């Protein structure tokens, strides 16, 4: 299961369809507050968080800080892939502390998304061999 945190409803719809075509299950939320709530309560089920860095309310950076501060190591260590049209204006030291898995530059194509999932998402089953995502 992937957690998508995106406040743009049109982009959320497109991203959800792209993930579906890649055989991925996801939950989509539109606020940082809801993303934190989901990770705090069910974080162990997420293989990856796709996080829009610019959100209303608490920002993507604040969401990442909240996730990394969780006491439950499995939840706190979930890979976080930042989605942004530009490089986030975050000091390099803070980016290192937040341990972002990578940056997916908007607007990206399905092949970019597939490559990011193959590289950054946790395996479906611990110890399972990764399988190729559909094209």
Question: Concise description?
Answer:
The protein is α/β, with parallel strands linked by helices. It has one domain: Rossmann fold. The chain contains 6 helices and 5 strands, in the order E-H-E-H-E-H-H-E-H-E-H.
Kindly describe this structure.
Helix content is 41%, strand content 16%. The protein has 135 residues and is an alpha/beta fold. It has six helices and five strands, in the order βαβαβααβαβα. It has a single domain, classed as Rossmann fold (3-Layer(aba) Sandwich). It is globular, with a radius of gyration of 14 Å. It has a five-stranded parallel β-sheet with strand order 2-1-3-4-5.
Question: Mind telling me the C-alpha Rg?
Answer: 14 Å
Strand order of the largest sheet: 2-1-3-4-5
Helical stretch tally: 6
Q: Considering the protein shown, what is the CATH homologous superfamily?
A: Response regulator
Domain count, please report it: 1
- Nearest-integer average pLDDT: 89
């Amino acid at each position: 299961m992937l957690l998508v945190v995106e406040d743009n409803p049109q982009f959320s719809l497109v991203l959800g369809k792209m993930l579906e075509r890649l055989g991925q299950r996801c939950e989509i939320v539109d606020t940082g507050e809801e993303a934190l709530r989901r990770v705090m309560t069910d974080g162990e089920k997420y293989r990856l968080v796709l996080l829009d860095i610019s959100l209303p309310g608490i920002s993507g950076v604040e969401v990442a800080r909240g996730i990394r501060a969780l006491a439950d190591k499995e939840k706190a260590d979930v890979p976080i892939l930042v989605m942004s049209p530009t490089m986030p204006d975050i000091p390099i030291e803070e980016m290192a502390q937040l341990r972002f898995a990578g940056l997916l530059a908007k607007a990206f194509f399905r092949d970019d998304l597939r490559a990011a999932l193959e590289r950054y998402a946790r395996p479906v089953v611990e110890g399972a061999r990764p399988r190729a995502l559909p094209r």
